[in-house]
User: Fold this.
Amino acid sequence: MKNVDVLIVGAGPAGLGAALSAHDFGLSVLVVDENPRAGGQIYRALQENPARGLGRILGADYLAGKPLLERFAASGVAHLPRARVWQIGHDNVAYLSALSPGPRPEPVKARFIVLATGAQERPFPLPGWTIPGAMTVGGAQILLKTAGLLPPDDTVLIGGGPLLYQFAWQIFQAGSRIQAIVDTRGPIASRPLFGHAISALRAPALLWRGMKLLAAPRRHGARRVRGAAAIRISGESRVDSVHYSLQGVEHTLETSAVLLHAGLMPEINFSSALGCAHFWNRQQHAWQAHCSIWRESSRPGLFIAGDAGGIAGAEAARLSGSIAALEIARQAGKIGAPERDERARPLFRRWRQQLAPRPFLDALYPPPPECFSPPDETIVCRCENVTAGEIRRAARLGASGPNQIKALTRAGMGPCQGRFCACVTAALAAQAAGLGLGEVAMPRGRFPLKPVTLEEIALSDADGLDV
Ligand SMILES: Cc1cc2nc3c(=O)[nH]c(=O)nc-3n(C[C@H](O)[C@H](O)[C@H](O)COP(=O)(O)OP(=O)(O)OC[C@H]3O[C@@H](n4cnc5c(N)ncnc54)[C@H](O)[C@@H]3O)c2cc1C
Assistant:
């Protein structure tokens, strides 16, 4: 078993921010990440892409990660890439599996753990979303960042939110095209938005960028419709068309590829499986772990930095990692509270600046109502092939939330362990009971969080393992 002061799960901006600061205080740090290189979602493959001619396409926000990655590479912080944490035991031991051939990584016992596992795309279960040719915008962007692949010219993007428009812009930068953006956002309630816009003015660069992204589809000849409803994807062995309704009129677009995006949610699988306290974030329509201002969760010694603790973007993620490291350094006896507070002051100031436009963005891009209430025939749990109708039936039989529905229908029991269905299952249970979103029990994560072999479990030397 390996022993470290600080184990950091995730090498995105939050994990790197935490790692560099903790390392500066003389703490032993190990950063583990599934990906082959550091950078997380936003800076994925940034070490290779400029040389492959993709830097300009991916844009200035992407290239802005270069100094952080260079600092990390030069820091000497231990980094274990292509390794996945699948369980954290009650004794703070993390169990890992390797994602490439080679020796099996040993379990890691850490005094402090920072979960910097980022966000996940919100599932958007529409009729036909499981047909080959339909995938998420984030998935398609990963193909661009890792393999330089672009979607076909007749692609239709469905949903809304900053990542959707950013990816469309990146496609245009590459000199490629898309057919249309079918935006699900309806008319905006202007009064709350106006209030939030005032605080968003503290981040004028972001607003300007947003306007540029929104103008791009028209400039590049892509159709953009707003307020689409009753969206369906059809096709036998492959996607062949998208159907939607606009002010009561049915429309069809023929296409070979559909990219869906309904916003981001914090990745809470570890914190929920570890029994941390959570709350329903009404603005972001998602569960979120309770954290102190220092990003410490309700479980002492377990910190949650970056998007895993609430969607706030890359720079806020990096700052929150550094803030967590200051409190870790204090608890480890490296600094006292006055020094922690002194060092934290400028970080908090910049962090608050980064958070200022969030309420505006959250109000501007609420998740489409469809993603909480798909028609009965829609598959919700892709792993176990469970439809919305089956989930509604289980709820009507008295299953009061996603954890009971899982036992009755197997929704959430497959390899993804509910990551792509539990929030929809919970919403359907809430509707059946006449409750609001977030008023039913939160889906409870269960270890192992990722598929592991029996051999890995058997060889885990696992006193603290409760599988
Ligand atoms: C698909 C997707 C694409 C995005 N693209 C952009 C973009 O282009 N521009 C933008 O501004 N924002 C983008 N975002 C939002 C962006 O990710 C965040 O704002 C920012 O990167 C958050 O940083 P983070 O460090 O909190 O998390 P991330 O950057 O997401 O890093 C989390 C890291 O944790 C690792 N990880 C998770 N679970 C485990 C585990 N069990 N074991 C080991 N490693 C694990 C992941 O591999 C990942 O590298 C994207 C988000 C998603 C989900």
User: Anything to note?
Assistant: Residues 337-355 form the longest helix (19 residues). The pocket of flavin-adenine dinucleotide is lined by residues 9-15, 32-35, 40-42, 61, 84-85, 116-121, 138, 141, 163, 166, 264, 306-308, 313-314, 317 (CB under 6 Å). The two ends are 19 Å apart (CA to CA).
